[in-house]
TrEMBL record:
UniProt xrefs under PANTHER family: BETA-LACTAMASE-RELATED
Protein name, as recorded: Serine hydrolase domain-containing protein
This protein's UniProt keywords: Hydrolase
Highest taxon, organism lineage: Bacteria
E.C. code: 3.1.1.103
Amino acid sequence: MARCNRNHEGLVSEGRRQFLGYTGAGVLAAVLPGCGNDELHSTPYQQTIALGQQMIQQAVSDPSSPVAAISVAMIKGNAVVWQQAFGLASVPGQIKATPQTRFNIGSVSKLFPALAATILVDRGLITLDTPIVKYLPTFTMLSPQYAQITMRHLLSHASGLPGTNGRNLFTFEPVTGYAADTQAELANSHLKHLPGELAVYCNDGFTMVEQVVLAVTGQNFVDFVQSEILAPLKMTNSSYLTSVPSSGSFSLPYVNGTQHQEFVNAYATGGLSSTPADMMNLAQMVYGGGMFEGQRIVSAAGIAEMGADQTKSLTINPSPEWRWGLGWDTVVQPALNAAGVLGWEKDGGTAFYSTEFFVVPGSQFALLVTGNAGYNARAIAETLVLSALKEDGTISSLPAKISTTAPPVASGPGVASGAGIYGNSDSPYQVLANADGSLQINQWDAHTRGWAQIGAYRYRSDGWWWSDTDTVSYRFAVVSGNDSEGSAFNYRYLMKRVVPGAGYAYLTLPVGQQLAPLAALDSAWQQRVGTQWTLTNDSPSAVPIVVLGNPPGFFATLSELPGYVLYGNEDLRYQLFVPVSDTLGGMSVKVPGNFGRDLYEIRFASTSATTLTIGSSIYARI
């Protein structure tokens, strides 16, 4: 779900290369709250609007987590019933945000490559299930199975591409050529899983849609979306920031005393700048079956395919709530599903913005909320959508909220097999089986370079492990079988269950895969332990360079897990790598959902090399 934004409900870790991770909330200066212009029409949603105004005003007024600006729009049928902006578009200028102020909507942008692909299907230029090498013969990877990747895989996070090309992803000046750079990077990379085997959030898949669009139409992706989607939808306050804009109102990040404009150079995966009102035109087209104001933008069959559950054919899917569509995070939104309503959701985040987009096709209803960091967009969106559906009579009552009180302790299964180290794209977990039958769960901490205790958990009557002080619960899931090539697999996952957003539904996701010890590191890798490395080839305007000061990456090991090396920094996060050779460190896990999302390989030119390559980023030894 992408999630994507900030450390969203504890589901997505920080780090630009996780795309929905790096947060500006902690570095934004406190701002003076205030409402921008509001535009209200005759509406049955007065209670919902009043509730939304209260929630959003509270968010922009919270000194503990400053939010510069939030903007919202809500539509029923073809009438926008509420649009309003709160807070400041410019903090130093004390310029109020208005409904025309544009925000970077992050991964909500993924709906546009999905629409672009659907339009190409309508025109007979591609099919969703044909390998993309037919359309893009220059695409290649080191794993031969790359030739199986289809457009459906790219748009449903099932391609097996490593994750996110981090170089020049978020910058304070426009940087061109990101998609071509990503394709060149992938030519030197392996797949992290077989295409279609599992679905793990993957930005590079959407970036590769840019290259396919260019190959089959001769138009670059930005121009294609502008002419074929934005223009006919009359989204006049929406565009990709390929250059410094000369006009328009923008919400601008204010960081460490300096105001910037954020550029997201991964256009398809997260680069659209828009307003909630513009996005209501998109919503009309979606629940209008591809029609907008009498003009067909895309086929009804294409819209239906975007909203179809793409997870049904996955080999590995231990999380029942993950129902990816094409572009959509979920086509069975959990909170709405608890109320008996089918809803589609896409969230988005960049270095400084958080956005939630909900469409309820059967009710011809939609809402988008977007803001300049530091607030719980999902909680606001879920609350307001459910409130509106109750107010207009779609549902008779709100669903019951999930209890976060631990149920009674019960006699549990043996847990010795669950003890060990669990790898992911964030930082490793450690599970210890205590003598009293409880579990201790730790996570590796970069500051101490050791284990930090998350908590002690006991088995409960609902089949999950709870603590008495934590609303999060855990359990283990074992997935086994044979993959598409006939190879047997058996993976044990540490599953985490949370109650995100407004609290109406559980979200269950694997946060780590159990790893077995390997042979001891050879001398080439042992000599790298403790060394530090600095990024050398990002733009000087890259957000991590400007804001974080280009933190060094470092190598470490875990005494509890021989044979692996741990590498990372606060931007990359901290991953366990498997030494494939003296010059290659490979990916170690297959974790669906979000905690296996941005994996990397480490490459050295030689055993004595003083530079290393991760994706297209080059680091030099300090």
